[in-house]
Amino acid sequence: xxxxxxxxxxxxxxxxxxxxxxxxxxxxxxxxxxxxxxxxxxxxxxxxxxxxxxxxxxxxxxxxxxxxxxxxxxxxxxxxxxxxxxxxxxxxxxxxxxxxxxxxxxxxxxxxxxxxxxxxxxxxxxxxxxxxxxxxxxxxxxxxxxxxxxxxxxxxxxxxxxxx
Length: 164
Hints:
Layout: H1 2-22, H2 33-43, H3 62-76, H4 81-92, H5 107-133, H6 143-156
């Protein structure tokens, strides 16, 4: 029992050492709350280039942390939010914007889902219309119909039963 307790304590110590080695530093926070609020507001408009489903304000990826720090420094230097967003867009393209603008290069992004929905509904309507014009013998019978026919056939072979 004593050996087991020593092994368990050694395993816990090894796990704690590994956890400390892999721990990340806390996110940088400016001493100025107004600056931090502006930093988070700009960061909420920029997409994390690694995660792609999060803003750089929400992401803990190294690149997102670097971009947040860069936004914070640019704000400290007196640049406006628009200047920072324009700089990031010039450097990374419209993809970095969490809400990209509607223009010809992003038209597929904005109107593609609606076009796919309309196309899918049109195909469904054509298929249903063709099926409604087909004679009934073109369709395979349902399995429930087969089961009913089998039951009727077995009932008609017994004496004292009548087939419907």
